[in-house]
Design a protein that fits this description.
heterodimer, A: 253 residues, alpha/beta, six-stranded mixed beta sheet, four-stranded antiparallel beta sheet, 9 helices, B: 439 residues, ten-stranded mixed beta sheet, disordered N terminus
Chain lengths: 253, 439
C-alpha cells in the first residue's frame, strides 16, 4: 500500500441528511491538495468526519492513513496515528496555557511511563513560535482565549508544527485573516511541507492558493468532487465563478 | 428529658475539663469562655426555616452527639506533621498545631519583632497580649447563620494565631499557620486573628489538614482587620479528609483605602460550611473574595457570603468557583449589601459551577440589596457542563478524554489559583487538586 491519505466511497450523514456522497480522494504523502467549493457543499463536514466528530455519521466507505483504516479509531487515536485537523473555529480553553496544552498532546504520544523532556520541549516550542512570528509571551496565555482571528490560526499551525502529523487537513485556515496574517500562516505551512507530510487545504477562496501552492486542486460540489486539476484550476474557478461548477455538476447528473 | 440531659452533661463535663485545664489563664478569658458556652447552649440548632441554611444538610449539625471536646489527643508523630507543614518557599514565621496543641513554632525574625510585629499563638496572646484580644478577639459580627458554632468556637478555642502588624510595616514573606486534626472524633478550633495597622502590608497562609482518615470536627474562625491603607493578603487551603465536618467563619473589616484579599482552596470535608463576610467600611477600600472547591463522592460544600459596603467609593469583587464530581453537592449563597451612604460602590459577585457528573448538584443563590442610588453592582451565577466541542478539540489533538477533562477542570480553577501570589503555594495547591482529581 502506498503512503497516502486515501478516502474511498465515503458517505457521511448529519442526522438523516447525506452530506458527503460517494467521496473519493487520494493524497500521496509529500503532496498538498486543495479542495475548493461553495459554502454548504460539505468541505468542513469532510474534515470533521475524518477527525471523528461524533455528530458526523460515516454511513459507508473508508478512510485510510498509509493503508490503515481510521474509522475504528477514537478521535484522539486518529490524531495520535498522525492525522491533524486545523480547525476553522478553534475552541477557547480558559485557564489552559498553550504550552501546557501542546505538552499534554505531546505527552499523550509518549509510551507509558515516559516523561517529556521539558527543556527540549520549550526549545522546540520557541523555535516554532519564532518561525510563525508568535510572541513568546503567548506560551502562558490560555489557548485561543481573547486571540484575534489571525492569532488563533497561527496557534493552529503552531500545534501542527509541534505534533508532526503525517497528514494534515486545514479547514478554511484563511478565513478571518488579513493579508499579512495570511502570509505568516502560509509561510508556516510551507515550512512544514516536505516528503513526510500530506496536506489537504480546504478553502472557499483562491487567494490562499497563491501562497500555499497546491499540487492538485479539487472542486467540490454537493458532497462530491466534480472536477480536479492542477493549480491553474483554482484560477479558472476564480474567473468563472462557482456557477460554472454547478453547470458541470448538473451536466454530470 | 433524662436522655437529653445526658447529652447536655457530656459537653458540660468536657467544658468544665477545658476550663480546669486553663488554670493559668486570666479571669476575663475564663469568664469570656463561660459566657460563650452559655450562649452556645442557649442558641438553637439551625432550623429548616432559616434562610441562611436553605438547601443545607442539617442532619449532622448536632455536633455534641459525635465529637469529644475534652481536648485529649492521640497524636503520636509530631515531626511528621511538622515536615508536612511546608506550603510556601519562604516565610516570615510559622505555627503548626495539631489537636489544638502546639507542634512547632517559627517566630518572626528579630528585626520584625523590634518593629513591634506580634506573631504568636492564641494561648500565648492570652498571657501576653490580653489588651489586644479584648479589643479584637471575636469582635466581628457573625451574621450568616453559624452564630451557635461561633459560640462553640469561643468556648473551646485554645489555639490559633495572632498576627499584629504595626503602622507602616510592610512584610513580603508570608506568615503560615497549619492546623491539623488528628484524633478520631476529636474537635479542633483554629483561630486566626490578623490586625494590620495603617499602611502596613502582610500576607498570611493558613492550611487545615487531617492526619489520617478518621472523622473529626473543625470549627474555625478567621478575622482580618485592615486599618487605613493597609494590605492583607490571606490564602486558606482546606484539605481535611472526607470524614471531617468543618465550619469556617471568616470576616474582614476593610478600613479607608485598605486592600483585603481572601483566597480559599477547598478540597476536603464530608460536610463543610463556610461563611465569609467582607465588610467594606472605609472609603476607597477594596476587598477580593475568591474561592475554589473541587468536590467528589458525597461531599457537601456550603458557602455563604456577604459583601457589605458601608462607605462611599468602595469596591469588592467576589469569585467562587466549584467543580463537582460524582454525587457531590455545593451551595453558594451570596449577598451584596450597599448601605444608603455608600455611593460609587462597585461590587461584583460571580459564582461558576462546573458539573462533571449528572448526579452532582450545584445550588446558587445570588442576591443584591442596594440602598444607594449611584452604584455599579452585578451578580452572575452559572452552572454548566464541559462543552462537547471543547473536548472534541482536545481529543483532536490526541489528548485522551480523561486527560482532556482534567485539563479543562484545572483550567477552570486557574482564574482563582493564578491570583495566589506565592508561586510555591499555588503549585502546592495544584498538586493537591491533581491528587484529588485522580482519586
Amino acid at each position: 500500500m502506498s503512503a497516502s491519505l486515501e478516502i474511498k466511497n465515503l458517505n457521511v450523514n448529519i442526522g438523516d441528511k447525506r452530506i458527503i456522497k460517494d467521496f473519493n480522494l487520494s493524497i500521496p504523502k509529500g503532496e498538498v491538495h486543495a479542495i475548493m467549493g461553495p459554502n454548504g457543499t460539505g468541505k468542513s463536514t469532510l474534515a470533521k468526519a475524518l477527525a471523528g466528530h461524533p455528530d458526523y455519521e460515516i454511513v459507508s466507505g473508508d478512510a485510510l492513513v498509509d493503508g490503515e483504516s481510521l474509522l475504528d479509531l477514537e478521535v484522539d487515536e486518529r490524531s495520535r496515528s498522525g492525522l491533524f485537523l486545523a480547525f476553522q473555529y478553534p475552541m477557547e480553553i480558559p485557564g489552559v496555557s498553550i504550552a501546557n496544552f501542546i505538552r499534554a498532546a505531546r505527552n499523550a504520544r509518549l509510551p507509558d511511563g515516559e516523561e517529556l523532556n521539558a527543556p527540549a520541549f520549550y526549545k522546540e516550542l520557541y523555535e516554532k513560535m519564532d518561525m510563525l512570528k508568535i510572541d513568546r509571551k503567548f506560551t502562558s496565555r490560555s489557548v485561543n482565549e481573547g486571540f484575534s482571528g489571525g492569532e488563533k490560526k497561527r496557534c493552529e499551525i503552531l500545534q501542527m508544527a509541534m505534533l508532526n502529523p503525517r497528514y494534515a487537513i486545514l479547514d478554511e485556515t484563511d478565513s478571518g485573516l488579513d493579508i499579512d496574517a495570511l502570509k505568516v500562516v502560509s509561510d508556516g505551512v510551507n515550512a512544514l511541507r516536505g516528503p513526510g507530510l500530506g496536506a489537504l487545504v480546504i478553502t472557499h477562496y483562491q487567494r490562499l492558493l497563491n501562497y500555499i501552492v497546491p499540487d492538485q486542486v479539487h472542486v467540490m460540489y454537493d458532497g462530491r468532487i466534480v472536477k480536479s486539476g492542477d493549480k491553474d484550476l483554482a484560477l479558472e474557478l476564480e474567473s468563472k465563478g462557482y456557477d460554472w461548477i454547478k453547470e458541470i455538476a448538473d451536466d454530470a447528473a | 428529658m433524662e436522655a437529653e440531659t445526658g447529652i447536655d452533661e457530656s459537653i458540660r463535663y468536657d467544658f468544665q475539663n477545658h476550663i480546669d485545664s486553663l488554670n493559668t489563664a486570666p479571669e476575663w478569658w475564663i469568664q469570656y469562655k463561660q459566657d460563650a458556652f452559655d450562649s452556645y447552649m442557649d442558641l438553637p440548632l439551625p432550623r429548616r426555616s432559616d434562610e441562611n441554611w436553605r438547601f443545607a444538610n442539617r442532619s449532622d449539625l448536632d455536633v455534641e452527639r459525635s465529637y469529644a471536646f475534652d481536648g485529649e489527643s492521640s497524636l503520636a508523630d509530631r515531626s511528621k506533621l511538622e515536615q508536612a507543614s511546608q506550603f510556601t518557599e519562604t516565610q516570615s514565621g510559622s505555627y503548626v498545631f495539631a489537636d489544638n496543641q502546639l507542634v512547632s513554632a517559627n517566630h518572626a525574625p528579630q528585626e520584625l519583632q523590634d518593629k513591634g510585629v506580634i506573631w504568636c499563638s492564641i494561648s500565648e496572646a492570652i498571657e501576653r497580649h490580653g489588651d489586644l484580644l479584648k479589643d479584637y478577639f471575636m469582635k466581628q459580627d457573625v451574621d450568616l447563620g453559624s452564630e451557635k458554632f461561633a459560640q462553640l468556637h469561643s468556648a473551646f478555642v485554645t489555639n490559633g494565631i495572632l498576627l499584629y502588624i504595626p503602622k507602616g510595616v510592610e512584610i513580603d514573606a508570608p506568615f503560615c499557620a497549619y492546623n491539623w486534626a488528628s484524633t478520631p472524633n476529636g474537635a479542633i478550633f483554629p483561630h486566626t486573628l490578623v490586625i494590620a495597622e495603617e499602611f502596613s502590608s502582610v500576607r498570611l497562609v493558613e492550611a487545615h489538614l487531617s492526619d489520617g482518615e478518621d472523622a473529626a470536627l473543625s470549627c474555625g474562625v478567621t478575622h482580618l482587620f485592615a486599618g487605613i491603607g493597609a494590605k492583607i493578603n490571606y490564602t486558606h487551603v482546606q484539605n481535611f479528609n472526607e470524614q471531617t465536618l468543618g465550619f469556617q467563619i471568616n470576616s474582614n473589616i476593610a478600613g479607608k483605602d485598605s486592600q483585603v484579599e481572601m483566597n480559599s482552596v477547598i478540597l476536603g470535608c464530608r460536610h463543610y460550611r463556610s461563611e465569609t463576610h467582607g465588610q467594606v467600611k472605609g472609603s476607597g477600600a477594596h476587598v477580593d473574595m475568591r474561592s475554589m472547591a473541587l468536590t467528589d463522592a458525597g461531599q457537601e460544600i456550603d458557602q455563604r457570603t456577604l459583601q457589605t459596603h458601608s462607605a462611599p467609593n468602595t469596591t469588592s469583587n467576589l469569585l467562587f468557583k466549584n467543580a463537582l464530581k460524582e454525587q457531590s453537592k455545593t451551595i453558594f449563597s451570596g449577598l451584596i449589601k450597599v448601605d444608603e451612604g455608600a455611593q460609587q460602590t462597585d461590587a461584583y459577585q460571580t459564582n461558576r459551577n462546573l458539573l462533571l457528573s449528572s448526579n452532582a448538584e450545584a445550588n446558587s443563590l445570588p442576591g443584591l440589596e442596594i440602598e444607594a442610588n449611584d452604584v455599579k453592582c452585578s451578580h452572575g451565577a452559572t452552572t454548566s457542563e464541559i462543552e462537547d466541542e471543547e473536548i472534541f478539540y482536545m481529543l483532536a489533538r490526541g489528548i485522551p478524554r480523561e486527560a482532556a477533562q482534567e485539563l479543562i477542570v484545572y483550567g477552570f480553577f486557574e482564574e482563582v489559583l493564578s491570583q495566589i501570589a506565592d508561586e510555591t503555594l499555588a503549585e502546592r495547591t495544584r498538586e493537591l487538586i491533581r491528587a484529588k482529581f485522580r482519586g
